[in-house]
Structure formats: C-alpha cells, structure tokens
Amino acid sequence: MDKATALDLYRVMRRIRVFEERATVLFGEGKLWGTIHSYAGEEGIAAGVCAHLRDDDWITSTHRGHGHCIAKHADLGRMYAELLGRETGYCRGRGGSMHIADTSKGNLGANGIVGGGIPIATGAALTAQQLGTDQVAVSFFGDGAANQGAFHESANLASIWKLPVIYVCENNQYAESLPVKNAFAIDDISKRAEGYGMPGVRVNGRDVRAVYDAAGELIARARRGEGPAFLVADTYRHEGHYYGDPRKYQSKDEIEGWKTRFDPLVDTRAWITGARLATQAELDAIDAEVIEEATRAVAWAEAGPPASPISLPGDVYASY
Q: Are strands 178-179 and 174-175 parallel, antiparallel or unpaired?
C-alpha cells in the first residue's frame, strides 16, 4: 500500500473516533436530541470499505452509523448540526443520529430498524443493473441483522439476479446485549453465503488493511457484473449499545481488555510507522488537524438555528 492511501485510511479512522468523542461530550452536556450509538472501535471497517467507493456508489447504514457517514465523505458540521437538532443538519435537524442521509454522496441513510437498510441497498443495486452502470451498493449491518429475514430474502434475490451489492456484517460480538455465540449455530457467519451461491469472506475488522484488501476485491467483482458478496468483519464496540448503557451483560475485564488490546487506531499507527510509510510526527499532525476540524464543526453546528416546524405538504411529500 502506498503512503497516500495509508494516510487517507488513518485520517478517516481518526475523524470517526474524534467525532464520537465530541458527540459523547455533547450528549453528557444534554445538548443532543434522543440517544446515540458509538462506532468507536469499528473505524477500520467503514474506512476500509468506503475507500473503494465513488460518490455515485450507494451505502445504507445502521443505528450505529456515524462512521459510515464520515467514511462516505460527510461534513462533520452538518452531522453535528443534525445531532443537535439544527436546521443546518443533513435532515434539517429532524432525523437525529439514526437517520442521517446524503444522497449527493450516495449515502441512502442510516436506519433505526435492525436490518432495515439491507433491502434498500439491494434495490439500489437493481437500479444500477437496470441502468447498465458500474455502480455498486454496500449495506452495513450488525451481527443481529444477519438473523433478520430481510437479509436472507435480499441475499437470495441478489444472488439470483447477480446484483452488484456487498453485504457487510460488522460483527461486534453483541446484538444489543445478546452475545453472538448465543445467536448463531455456526462460529463463522460468513459461511452463510454458501447457501446463496455467493462468496463469503471473513476478516479481522480491526485491521484496516485486511478490510481494505477484501472489500477491494469484492467491490471490483461486483462492478464487473459478477454478483453480490458477503463480507463479515469481526470487531468490538468500545462503548455500550448506546450512551448510558450500564453494560451488565459484560465484565469489566472484558471491556477494558478489548479496549486496550484491540484498538484499531493504535494498531493502524503501529502498522504505518512500522512499515515506514509515515512518522509518528506525521500521524500526530493528522490528529491535530482532525481535532481542530471537529472543534470548528461543533462551533458551526451550535451556531445554527433550531429545526423549524414541519411545513405541509412540502416536508412530507416529494415534489415533481
């Protein structure tokens, strides 16, 4: 991997981590509407996958979707504005954390329904096939969504029609509080792909290089018209299911062990410096730039006007 690509991946991962850290502060200050779900610990997945996507490629996201938005080139100011309930947010402050969308960047939106984005991405892939383009759709979802009927129905249809869609399962070990070991009869979730006649690949989701390489091959395959694929990235969320989650279903040793031994940002820094692609000072400079970017973004978002009342019918019905 060349230096520019490595640093781009690191920058995306750092932007996600810093965004989540600032969101935590804002939540603690009582400034955010609703709740938020942290993507901290899973940064390598969104960064590694979306590095291969163009603005006209589509993604669908989840309730834990900040990382996907940022990896698809979202503006941090507009994201914070959405969380803060400001008119300047991506959904004019009405969607909040779980419903950010930006069709100009191919982000078809996050979804509070478990597995809700899977059939949407499948439909987007059908659009590409019908139009004869080489666009690709990617659906991000958690291990819990892999047990939803929408996943099985979508995967079966996509394989029959050879749709250009990649199903990315972010296996963070828990579906809310249910351990993955109690939810699946198999250890390797990617083996389910065999039942649909599509490739199934399992990678270490904390290793951005592994995700980048695997996603690159599967996305290129989809662009060639060779059909869908299932990518399972094993990872661990650093925070609870939501901010304020008491996490009674996990031991303190487990939580601290994962956070200290398996931090994708720490691992990525070690890889980049060990491979002599960049120095610690260069990575520190990126960190400083991202922190400054987030500071400006929060200030801009907080200065925006509160979301206005809904206007009928314009805010409910699309115009033609």
A: antiparallel
Task: Note the pLDDT of residue 37.
Answer: 94
CA distance 278 to 235: 25
| Cα 197 to Cα 162: distance, rounded to the nearest angstrom | 10
Q: Is 54 exposed, middle or buried (0-12, 13-18, 19+ CB in 10 A)?
A: exposed
Is it the case that residue 319 has pLDDT exceeding 80?
A: no
Class of domain 3-301: alpha beta
CA distance linking residue 301 with residue 290, whole number of Å: 16
- Name the residue among 113, 248, 262, 244 with its Cα closest to residue 178: 248
Side-chain half-sphere exposure of 35, counting CA atoms within 13 A? 11
Residue 154, token pair as written in the block = 């979508």
Question: pLDDT (tens digit, 9 = 90+) per residue, 98-154?
Answer: 999 999 999 999 988 999 999 999 999 999 999 999 999 999 999 999 999 999 999
Is-above-0.85 flag for pTM?
A: yes
Of the pLDDT bands very low, low, confident and very high (cuts 50, 70, 90), residue 320 is low
Whether residue 199 has a cis bond before it, omega within 30° of 0: no
Q: By C-alpha distance, which of 71, 76, 56, 64 is closest to 8?
A: 71
Residue 232 near residue 188, CB atoms below 8 Å: yes
Among 120, 39, 122, CA closest to 79: 39
Locate the domains of the chain by residue range.
3-301
**Single-letter amino acid, residue 277:** L
Residue 165 DSSP class = E
- Tokens 């994962």 locate to 258
